[in-house]
Amino acid sequence: MAFSSVLTGTALGRAAVVLRESHCEQQSRRRRQAHICCSSVATAEQVRTGLKRNENIGKLQAGYLFPEIARRRRAHQDKHPDAKVISLGIGDTTEPIPKLIADAMQKAAAGLGTLAGYSGYGAEQGRGELREGICNAFYSSCGRKPHEIFVSDGSKCDIGRLQMMFGCEQRVAVQDPSYPVYVDSSVIMGMTGNYNASTTSFDNIEYMVCQPDNDFFPDLSKVAPTDLIFFCSPNNPTGAAATRQQLTELVAFAKKNGSIIVYDAAYALYISDDNCPKSIFEIPGAEECAIETCSFSKYAGFTGVRLGWTVVPEQLRYADGSPVIADFNRIMTTVFNGASIVAQAGGLACVQPEGLAEMQQLVHFYKENADILRQTFLDMGFKVYGGKNAPYVWVGFPGKPSWDVFADILEKCNIVTTPGSGFGPAGEGFVRASAFGHRKDILEAVERFKKAYGKQR
Amino acid sequence: MAFSSVLTGTALGRAAVVLRESHCEQQSRRRRQAHICCSSVATAEQVRTGLKRNENIGKLQAGYLFPEIARRRRAHQDKHPDAKVISLGIGDTTEPIPKLIADAMQKAAAGLGTLAGYSGYGAEQGRGELREGICNAFYSSCGRKPHEIFVSDGSKCDIGRLQMMFGCEQRVAVQDPSYPVYVDSSVIMGMTGNYNASTTSFDNIEYMVCQPDNDFFPDLSKVAPTDLIFFCSPNNPTGAAATRQQLTELVAFAKKNGSIIVYDAAYALYISDDNCPKSIFEIPGAEECAIETCSFSKYAGFTGVRLGWTVVPEQLRYADGSPVIADFNRIMTTVFNGASIVAQAGGLACVQPEGLAEMQQLVHFYKENADILRQTFLDMGFKVYGGKNAPYVWVGFPGKPSWDVFADILEKCNIVTTPGSGFGPAGEGFVRASAFGHRKDILEAVERFKKAYGKQR
C-alpha cells in the first residue's frame, strides 16, 4: 500500500515519496534510518503535510529568552563540571511555601482521595470564594467586584488567552525593555510585522523606551496611539515602579486614544513606596480602559504551583459597546478548564489574613536580597536601578553588549544573570539580577561579584 | 480633570462623555448609578474604548454548551427546590482519586512547604520523568518518544494552544456530532465563516456526519479535503470507538490530502474491543499526519486536578518541511508555564504499574455504570449506541428535538442529560447520558427512567 506524500514546500529539496508497508517494524526502521531531532532539518525520506505553517511563528527570533539562558548555563556547566553555579537569572522563587498555605494544599490533595473531599470540574473562572478573597485582599479600595476576577494558572497563560481574545487586528505598544511574552504573543497572533535585524525589534510594534533618562517611564508625547498597551509595574526587568502621577498620565493617554492597557501587576506586593499604586485600578477611570493580570507566583512561591488571576472590569467596552468581560469569559470557558483545585485551595489560604501576612514576610525576605544586591553594585560604583520596589536589580554596563556581560559574569563568577537585550533593544547595555535566591547564595554571589568586578572601579 | 471618551461604535446610541473628578468615591457613585452586569447591555454613561471587537468571537452562538446546561439546571432547581437532581450531564467524574495517586499529590504539596521538597518553575513541557512515564505507559508499542510528549493542564487547553499555533488560515473538519471545543476554538481563531441558522452549523467547516447508518464513522468519499481534521475516538458524545480499519482509512485520507489529524484520545482507556486502537499512532504512517491529545481527567478523576498531554511526532512536517513539534514547543514555552507540579506528582503516580492498575479499576467502575444505563435504555426499547468502549451512552429519540427531550427528562425525572444537538446538527434527535456518577445515583436514575419512559414502549 502506498501513500503519496505531499510535496508543496520548496525550502528543502530532497523530500522523497515514501512507499510504506503496513506495520510497525517498518516504522521503526525508518526512525532508525532518519533520526530526526526536534530542531534539526530532515533531508532524507521526509514526508510533509500540505499545511501552510503559521508564518507569524516563523517571525519569532530564536527561542524564548529563558530557555536560551538555560542552554548557555548547561554549556557552561559542561565546560566547568565542578563550578557551583548560582542563578540570579530567570527569577524563580527558592524559598518554601509558607506552611499555612502548603498545609491547605496538602489537605486539599488528601481530600481528593476521599468521597467527602473529592471534587471534579470547578467553574472555569475559579472558585467563587477565591474570586471574592482575591477581590477583598487586593481590590477592596478600588471598587472591583468578584465576578470581574478570573482565576487562572498564571499571568503568562492569561496573556496568551487575552491575545487570542483580541485577535490579530490590534496594534500593540510595549515598554522597552519588557517581559518577552507581550511581544512574542503579539507576533504569534499576527499583530506585528517582521523582525528587523537592524533595530533588533519587530515592525509595527510601538516600543516605549524606558531608560534612566526618563525615569523608566515612557515619554507619552512621543508614543504613537495603539489599540493595546502592555505595561508592567513594578517593571520586569528594570525594577521601576510607576508613580500615581505617571499612571494617571498613562490612563489619560489610553483614554484619549481609545486604547486598552494590559497591566501586569505580578510584583505589586514588592512596592514599598506609598506614591506607587499597587493596582492600575487605583487610578480613577482605569476601569474603562484597563485589564490587570497578577499572580501568586512571586508572592507565595507559586511558580511551580501555577495560580494567577486577571481582572476585567465590567465597564470596559469595545468600540461597538460590547463588554470585554463577556468575551474574556467566553475564551476562559472555551479554551481553559479552571486552575487546579489543589492550587486554588492554596490560593484561598493566601488571601486569608494569616496567609497575606505570610506572603508579606516572604516578599520582605526577597526584598532584603534585592537590597543586598543593589547595595553591592552601588558600592562597586555601578549605575544601579530598581531593587527598591521590585525583586529585580537593573545594572548598567554602558557601551557593552549585554550578552557579553552575561557571558563575562558567568565565566568569572559562575553566576547566571539575564542580559538586558533579551527584554528589548533598550535593554542593551544592562543586565538584570534577580533577588530570588537563598540568602547564603545571594551573599556568596555578592562576594564573587566583588572579587571579579570590585577592583575595576 | 476630564477624560474624553472614545465614541467610535454605533451599536448603542446613548453612550455619554463622562466628566470625572480625581478619586475613588466618584467611581463608586458611578458604579451605583450604572450597575452593569457582565451580560447586559449598558445604555447610561457608557464609555467605550476604540478597540474593534474580535469579530470571530461575535460569530459564536450563545454560550459554551455546558454552562447553558448548568443554567437550565439551576432554573429547574429554583422551580423545584426539593427535587433531588441527578446529573448525567457534563461528564464530570465523581469517585475519589485512587489513594496511591492522591497520596503522591499530598506528599508533593507538603513538600512544597519544606526546603528539601520545594521547587519553582519546572520545564514548560513537563517533568522529564513524567514525559517518559506517559510515553512508556501509553505509547511504547507505537514508537513515540518522551520529547514528543508535552504535559499540560488538559486537552481542552491544548486544543486552544494548537489552534493558536496553526493560525487563522486553516480549514477544519469535525465529526458531527463532536465535542464543542473543536468548532468553537476554530471560530475564535477565524478559521470559519458565519453561523448559519438554517443548517445550525458554521460556514466553511467540513462537518463529517457520524450517525448510526454509517456506524458513526464518516463516509470519507463525501468529505472535502481540509487542513485539519479533528477526530475523537472513543467518541464524545456518541460513544463510538473507531476500528483499526476505520482509522487506517482516516490516516490514508489525511495523507492523500496533506491534512493533519488532531486526534482526541481522552477516553482511550475505556476501550475493551481489541479491534479498536487506543492511540492513532498504532496506525502506520500516523506519525506523519497526526497529533494526539489525551488526559488523566477521565482515567484518574483529574477533572479538577488538571493534567493532560499532547503528542506531536517529530516526523510531522508543514508543507515547507519545518517540524510542527518545534512550533508547538515555541507555543508551549511562550503562552504556557507548565502544569502544576502537584498535579504532575499525581501524574507520575498514575503511570507507575500500581497507578495504572488503579486507573483501570476506576475506568472499569464507570464502564459498569455505562453498561447499566445502556441496558436500561435497551430494555425500554430505545435505540442505544455507545457505552461499550466509552463512558457515554447515546440514546436516539428520532424526530424529537434534543433540547425538548432534555427538558422532558429534567422535568419528569429530575435528571440532567446533554442534548445531542449541542454537539452539532447531526446530534439532533439524540441525548447523551454520562456514566460518571456514584453507583447509587446511576441506579436511582435508572429507576426514574423506567418509571417515566418504561411504559411508552
From TrEMBL, chains A, B:
Cofactor(s) named in the record: pyridoxal 5'-phosphate
UniProt-recorded name of the protein: Aminotransferase class I/classII large domain-containing protein
Domain Aminotransferase class I/classII large residues, every copy: 84-449
NCBIfam families reported for this sequence: DAPAT_plant
The keyword Nucleotide-binding is assigned to this record: no
Record-linked HAMAP family: DapL_aminotrans_1 (MF_01642)
Keyword Transferase: yes
Taxonomic source organism: [Myrmecia] bisecta
Family, similarity comment: Belongs to the class-I pyridoxal-phosphate-dependent aminotransferase family. LL-diaminopimelate aminotransferase subfamily.
One of the record's GO molecular function terms: transaminase activity
Biological process annotations from GO: systemic acquired resistance, salicylic acid mediated signaling pathway
Keywords tagged on the record: Aminotransferase, Pyridoxal phosphate, Transferase
